[in-house]
Amino acid sequence: MSPRTPLHFTASRFRRLFRHQSYRCLSCSLRLFQSPSVSPPSTSTEDNTTHFGRQSIPSSTKSSRVASVFSSVATSYDTMNDLMSLGLHRHWKDRFVTSLSPGSSSPSAPWTMLDVAGGTGDIAFRLLDHATLLKNDQLSKVIVSDINPAMLALGQRRALLTPYANTFPPRLEWLEADAEALPPEKVPDGSIDLYTVAFGIRNFTSPSRALAEAYRVLKPGGVFACLEFSQVNSRLFNALYKRWSFSAIPMMGQLVAGDRDSYQYLVESIERFP
């Protein structure tokens, strides 16, 4: 994590993605009204290369290289997030979920939520806490999807410490899947009320394919919410941030996790996004 400003996709950016259909994907803070000029994003790929931090690599290799990074950092994930962001990542995630007000006010219409790249459960647990404690919603559930089994295993262990580990019907489901090709038998068309992705979309090989999948699985009127890093406007703060991220964070990765390279990639991926 880093002390940069979280990015929310704006309505105008979604209008450029969708044309000639009614909306499904929405910002977490701005709702797109029904419009005749809306359509799903293209899934085409312009070339066969993509970025991996500051490197340009074949698109076919990015998924495995990102998976290697997160397999390496999984065991130290919580500690490093607190150190890298000085604990602010918890506040960002709390505000993100609160802004969405997840959960149903009607027992006959519980929500099905999908948290993508969410293997640790950080967002999923917050979604269920908000639904349960603030809306008295005992039935809405979250599907936690991640391409990395090590991150999912971490989330499943953490889930045992929550009230949601062994509920009936299940309120947590764990799915090992690629955000760019979600299995339709597990996540059918038009089945999701709320799709979230926090600090994950910058690691996708093709964000446009992931957005197309989000469009496919969301119910008409469903909500797409993305929490991600953006650019710093202040020159002074930007200089301080870069010194912190490119000097301190990789060093902490080496000292705490024994892995400088993975944290070097993470700060480079933030610099490259969006």
Topology:
Blueprint: E1 6-7, H1 11-17, E2 49-52, E3 55-58, H2 59-73, H3 77-85, H4 88-100, E4 112-116, H5 122-135, E5 141-146, H6 149-159, E6 172-176, E7 192-198, H7 207-217, E8 218-229, H8 235-257, H9 260-272
Parallel strand pairs: 4-5, 4-7, 5-6, 7-8
Antiparallel strand pairs: 1-8, 2-3
Helix pairs in contact: 2-9, 3-8, 4-5, 8-9
Roughly how many Å is the radius of gyration? 18 Å
Question: Could you say which overall geometry the principal axes of the C-alpha atoms support?
Answer: globular
Distance between the ends:
16 Å
Order of helices and strands: EHEEHHHEHEHEEHEHH
- Counting DSSP E segments of at least 2 residues, the number of strands comes to 8
Beta-strand portion reads 15-25%
Question: Order of strands across the widest beta sheet?
Answer: 1-8-7-4-5-6
Biggest sheet, in brief? 6 strands, mixed
Which structural class is indicated by helix and strand composition? Answer: alpha/beta
How many helices?
9
Task: Explain this structure.
The protein is α/β, with parallel strands linked by helices. The chain is built from nine helices and eight strands. The strands form two sheets. A six-stranded mixed beta sheet has the order 1-8-7-4-5-6. A hairpin with a 2-residue loop joins β2 and β3. α2 packs across α9. The longest helix is centred in the last third of the chain and has 23 residues. The chain starts with 5 loop residues before the first strand and ends with a helix. The relative contact order is 0.18.
List keywords for this structure.
six-stranded mixed sheet; two-stranded antiparallel ribbon; disordered N terminus; 42% helix; 274 residues
